[in-house]
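User: what does the whole thing look like in 3D?
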Amino acid sequence: NHIVQFIQTVAQNSRPGTIITDVGSTKQQICEQLKGTLPAEVTFVASHPLAGSEKSGYEFSDQNLFQDRPCVITPDESVPAEAVSRIRQFWEALGMHVLQTTPEKHDLILAETSHLPHVVASALAATLATENTRYTSTGFRDTTRIAGGDPALWIDILLSNRDAIVTSLDKYSQSLQQFREAILTQDEKRLRQLLEDGKKKHDTLNSTP
Amino acid sequence: NHIVQFIQTVAQNSRPGTIITDVGSTKQQICEQLKGTLPAEVTFVASHPLAGSEKSGYEFSDQNLFQDRPCVITPDESVPAEAVSRIRQFWEALGMHVLQTTPEKHDLILAETSHLPHVVASALAATLATENTRYTSTGFRDTTRIAGGDPALWIDILLSNRDAIVTSLDKYSQSLQQFREAILTQDEKRLRQLLEDGKKKHDTLNSTP
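Assistant: Here's the predicted 3D structure for the full assembly of 418 residues, as structure tokens:
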């Protein structure tokens, strides 16, 4: 894991009292591999700001990127409260609201809210026959927007959270199969339930700021 | 089909020379069911403007809704060229570029570019555990945006294009299974291919105006 090596190098060259954080999309592997490897006087508080886009590089920088977005921190229980508090204040100063949990729970939750959607979008983009491109509209583009993300970055994310992502994928595939069954058997009542369930979740999601 | 009944009622109350069009999302069922049922002096030219959002009602009206978006027309071969031309000009006057094909091809293509994405987004929204809502970010919202569409409308669309949608869903499920396999077996090379394939399609899609 590139992040682990980078943090170790930085830590070995830091003054006593330094607090280090990161912005990696999975937390369990990073936290486990770092455990016990840093100098005693340097503290690591893992972070995952849930902000960004499929674009990368300076030309796509955005001064409001972090505004009102969530940031998850997953500090080890050995980290002093003072260090956790400083990292929390750092993200809050950038406009984020901070959620605290364990690396394990973070990875289970983000498998569902971030890693699964990436696979879903990427597989959908891949399904499109090139000659049908001109028959797409905003719906297809929105649904596949995140498929434009950097493959190298996403390989690291998907492989470092394998089990949770496979579990989420299987849950999602079951949901797809329910749609397939309802459409195939022309089960209007069941199809209505499925569509309304999706819409209810969508509406909840878009009513929270 | 509500659209068929509505067009028949309108046609029976129209003056000779009237040209009627529609904005339905599937075309084969409408065109087949209308065939031979309209007064001889009234012409029907089927249309599907690929524009809209998950919102409905007057308060979400948008004067630029049709600007630079595609509109598919699927006129029966018996329709005079003059009538096709007038409908084409009508949509072009609203800023759309018009694509012409058969009802059958329209439904096969749109199953992939519009109906499949709706099922994909709706199933993804349904998969989200309510307690994880606050751990979502813009990626999840974009990928599930169209799941906010009106269930009653989408029941009609999904059931009137059943076979093509089931075929698209199966193709998509295979693509998902390839991701699952690559993640499960930690096959980095294969995973890179899959992600790059998705990104390539995404980039093509977003480079066309």
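In plain terms: Chain A has two domains: 2-103, 106-207. Chain A has a mean pLDDT of 95.
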